[in-house]
Amino acid sequence: MIKTYRAKAFIAMSTISLLMLCAFAPAAYADHPMGIKHDKVLRVAFGVERPPFVFEDHESGLEIDLIRAITHHMGYQIKPIFVPNARGYRALKNHEVDIYTIASKEMAADFALSAPYIAFDNVIIARADNPTPINSFADLKGSRLAAFHNAHAYIKALGAVKDELSFYVETPNQSTQVLLLYKNRVDYLFCDKIIFEYYRDRAFEQRTIPKDGFDYKIHRIRAPTYYSSAFNDVALRDQYNVAFKAIIDNGKFESIMRQYDPSFSMLTSPLADFAKALD
Q1: What is the pTM of this model?
Q2: Which of 17, 46, 170, 183 is the most buried (most CB within 10 A)?
Q3: Secondary structure of residue 261 in the 3-state scheme
Q4: Which pLDDT value is given to residue 15?
Q5: 172, exposed or middle or buried, with CB in 10 Å at 0-12, 13-18, 19+?
Q6: What SS3 class is residue 188?
Q7: Which of 72, 84, 71, 87 shows the shortest CA–CA distance to 229?
Q8: Is the bond leading into 133 cis (omega within 30 degrees of zero)?
Q9: Angle between helices 252-260 and 62-74 in degrees, nearest 10
Q10: What's the pLDDT score for residue 276?
Q11: pLDDT value, residue 277
Q12: What is the separation of C-alpha 109 from the centre of its chain, rounded to a whole number of angstroms?
């Protein structure tokens, strides 16, 4: 009788525990469209830190947040790996990772590419009181310019005019560019819009430039550069594309973008057209 009683008590307690687990489990996965538990992991190769796309702590950033949102919708967790661009290419080629996140269209010969999901929008930035119209790199001749590291090698049109500038410098630390412009050491910057605005806001917070300093204006002389994610597995790429379009349709993509670029709108972004092409 004692054994029977204990057995019944054990079954009863087990049933209660199971019911409690079922009651709480949906809350943990309520935000997943299919209720999938994240026991699947994708190895994802990101580039090295480039705030605010990838922060130094490797825990957040625009690029990381977007990839997490897409893969979450697919039902996966990610294991991030941070490597220089060339190393990321080799890691994917050697099947050391499942996804490489900064893939140019030239990589389509070797990998299955997703729809473009992120852009680097390199623009010319000037003081608002600078009246000179800038429509091409040639219009910068005779002026002072600061650009990101190796810009002249990546952008051939810039490389063609750099020797005709009165002063030209490339800075690995892009926070330096903001100081150069605000302290009137250069007339123009050539850099990504989101990166500039991030370091400008940080400079305000750290009081390295005055908050009542001059405003700036943007000259767009080239189209943004769009990047895809690259895969060895075509089926996984197709799942990724479905999830990418889903987080655009449900507003999650725009919400993340606006955390880093308050002016962003899917109504005017070519990224929306890339997603529509998946229909």
Answers
A1: 0.83
A2: 46
A3: coil
A4: 44
A5: exposed
A6: strand
A7: 71
A8: no
A9: 170
A10: 82
A11: 85
A12: 23
Q: Calculate the alpha carbon distances from 154 to 102, 148, 149, 191, 226 in Å.
A: 15, 10, 9, 12, 14
Q: Which two tokens stand for residue 33?
A: 């469209």
| Sign of the CA dihedral with 151 first, then 157, 160, and 164 last | negative
- Per the CB < 8 A criterion, the answer to whether 226 and 263 are in contact is no
State the residue for tokens 């008590």: 9
Secondary structure (3-state) at 141: coil
Token look-up 């947040």 returns 65
Q: Look-up: residue for tokens 């993509």?
A: 253
Whether residue 246 contacts residue 239, with contact meaning beta carbons closer than 8 Å, is answered with no
Confidence at residue 39, expressed as pLDDT on a 0 to 100 scale: 63
- Report the half-sphere exposure of 241 (CA within 13 A, side-chain side): 20
Mean pLDDT for each consecutive 10-residue tract of the chain (279 residues)? 42 42 38 53 94 91 97 96 92 97 95 97 95 97 96 95 97 92 96 96 89 86 96 98 96 97 93 85
Q: What are the structure tokens assigned to 86, written together?
A: 């060339």
State which amino acid sits at residue 89: Y
Distance between CA 177 and CA 148 in Å, rounded? 8
Q: CA 101, CA 107: separation in Å to the nearest integer?
A: 12
Token pair, residue 7, equals 């057995």
CA distances from 227 to 7, 263, 268 (A): 60, 20, 18
Residue 91 · residue 74 · CB < 8 Å: no
